[in-house]
Amino acid sequence: MKRILTFLIASFVFSVGVFAQIDTSATSIVADDQEAELAYNRGVQAFMAQDNPTALTELTDAIKFKPNFEKAYYNRGVIKNELNDFEGGLADLSVAVEMNKTNEKAYFARGFSRVNTNDYTGAIIDFDKALSNGYKKANVYYYRGMANFYLEKYDEAIADYDKAIELNENYSYAYHDRGSAKQKKGNIEGAEADYLKSVEVNPEMAFAYNNLGSAQRELKKYDLAIESYTKAVTVNPEYYVAYNNRGLAKYQSEDYEGAIADFKKAINFQNTYAVAYNNMGMSLFKMKKYEEAGVAFSDAIKNDKNFAQAYANRGTVRENMRDFKGACQDWNRAVELGIENPEIYSKGCK
């Protein structure tokens, strides 16, 4: 019999925290720039009142009246970042930096823009400049760590998270992301310890419980993993990834009925979640419910037509049901899609 694949996704999640604050100091009004200063001050007031659209309008007016208004560019860039307009934020903050090359806050905020536009190398350069100009807060180390993480420089990322935690011992995101960097390096025990510290500091971080569970599952601590995933869905009852992962822990504990119940919950919240259909099929296969397993794998393929593992798994089901022609069709398709160890599936099929 061909080997059924176990497509067990750990689903580690990376986090994002608070990034920057605008300069809320009012400017003194002088006759030549009165309109610009008034508009700027109204923009700051609007931001403080959490009225970002009005703040943007007023800051834009301030820049029209005074094109070299550095603080207006800086604040408008920070607000654009907050509104997830990272390209716009990058443009404004670049102007602010050009006007004042020692503005450590602008370098930091632009680094955040660069992280969110996938320019991780540029982000590190900006964070370095923020530090060299006197910006020594924990979050600059945290976000430089994030950039290093995405560049797969895990040792550098861990060093940055260490520094962030040194400056802020309650930095839950830094504990969490340091755990993810350790997980990437294969230090699963270290990852577990950091995820535990993260949820100790902030018990409302559902994704941290999820990742804690995934580390515990990798360490074969299945009961603890189930507890962690349960905490994740307690914090966020619609967290379908955590239901899927709890199902995997139950599958690995040979609780196939419990696993199926969790995969169904995941599908209930995300009915196009191909991975959960595939994993439910694996559990049904273990229970020798081949027809139902075949339906589950077909549903996985319906939702992801390039899901090589689901084709391979459905082929194994068909082999067990003596449908050798159908099995070979599925295995050949899995090979076409780049399945690992293709020789296992192509052998004996034309």
Number of strands: 0
SSE series: HHHHHHHHHHHHHHHHHHH
> How far apart, in Å, are the first and last alpha carbons?
17 Å
Q: Give me the CATH superfamily of the domain at 31-117.
A: Tetratricopeptide repeat domain
Number of helices: 19
The overall average pLDDT, rounded, is 91
CATH topology-level fold name of the domain at 31-117: Serine Threonine Protein Phosphatase 5, Tetratricopeptide repeat
- Note the beta-strand portion: under 5%
List keywords for this structure.
350 residues; mainly alpha; Serine Threonine Protein Phosphatase 5, Tetratricopeptide repeat; 0% strand; disordered N terminus
Overview of the molecule:
- The radius of gyration is 26 Å and the shape is elongated.
- Residues 1-20 and 26-31 have low confidence and may be disordered.
- The chain has helices at 34-48, 52-65, 70-82, 86-99, 104-116, 120-132, 138-150, 154-167, 172-184, 188-201, 206-218, 222-235, 240-252, 256-269, 274-286, 290-303, 308-320, 324-336, 343-346.
- It has 350 residues and is mostly helical.
- The longest helix has 15 residues, at 34-48.
- 71% of the residues lie in helices and 0% in strands.
- Helix 3 packs parallel to helix 5 and helix 15 (274-286) packs parallel to helix 17.
- Among the domains are: 31-117, Alpha Horseshoe (Serine Threonine Protein Phosphatase 5, Tetratricopeptide repeat), CATH 1.25.40; 294-350, Tetratricopeptide repeat domain (Serine Threonine Protein Phosphatase 5, Tetratricopeptide repeat, Alpha Horseshoe).
- It starts with 33 loop residues before the first helix and ends with a helix.
- It is built from 19 helices and no strands.
